[in-house]
Amino acid sequence: MTANLPETKSVRTPFKADHVGSFLRPERLKKAREQFKEGSITHEELTRVEDEEITKLVSAQLENGLTAVTDGEFRRTWWHMDFLLGLDGIEYTETGEGIPFNGIKTKAHGYKVTGRIGYSGNHPFLDHFRKLQEIAGEGVKVKYTIPSPNMLFFHSGIETGLYQNGEDFYKDLIPAYRAFIKDLYDAGCRYLQLDDTAWSLFFSEESRALARAFGSDPDRLVHKFAEAINGAIEGRPDDLLVTMHICRGNFRSSYASSGSYEGASEVIFSKLNVDGLFLEFDDERSGGFEPLRFVNRPDLTIVLGLVTSKFPELEDEEQVKARIREAATYVPLQQLALSPQCGFASTEEGNILTEEEQWAKVRHIAKIAEEVWGPKA
What we know:
Helix content is 34%, strand content 15%. By secondary structure, the protein is of the alpha/beta class. It has a single domain, classed as TIM Barrel, CATH 3.20.20.210. Residues 1-9 have low confidence and may be disordered. Its EC number is 2.1.1.14. Keywords: Methyltransferase, Transferase.
């Protein structure tokens, strides 16, 4: 007779060799998107090109050592805007000036809150996910990325009178996110990543001053950001892995902000209910590993972004291993993993390296991870 075993909670963890999600758009895809904008091909023709290029991408990810695959964000123009524009009450706008990135600027595209924020249940990303899952096929781990709810902090609708202050909009946004995540889960998603650049508000005094300029106390706002993340994923099923990527900006191999995690470390590492954190540690702009001392959960994976996606040169393998060992003085080695510090193309323009150089980076990560943690750990 079989004994009744106690029910155990499943362990949710990123893979030891993982990635942030976006990949360089092939020239064929870029051309097709331009042709669609010009009206020389139909949406159906563009979708066919996207499907074919994503099929190639999924194969390339597996062939180069990854376990979880994404669609590379090939159907998006921006890593965040395409998702947010699919929510109720948010509309596209021309900003007149692009976002500054260390001497260069993005396209002057933006979004604004024009009505009460909500979710109507027909978000295009649901179909995008279903197509990715169909392309990946049975048995392949599929990862899907969306922006964090905190990406609306600078676009909160105060000027329209819809919301009273820069944080009031969360009361509508959090239920909208929770409903979308439920629909995404019902569509089959079991690995979700939230991408978030807003946390950089707490990483330098200059950035904290920017938060104050928006009428928020940064020491209080950091807890509001955590509440937004936790609220969005509250009640998620036990088999849904949720991670978050904290970014300092990634456009054409440049960046938008600097600073150590120290300014928000206690909240990030001990207050967030995510299963894993993808963190930038590829250069001195991110500071050292000391903030990891606040990790107080044995089920939280820290994915070290020690390999840059911005430049083609491969990092010295032994130096990467040495940095992993250094991080392991704060967090047990089995709670660590390895990835690029960011995606390879947070916008459709992409970083300044070739596709082969991109895949060399991915293979480099997979090789180091296997040597540190074992094959397909």
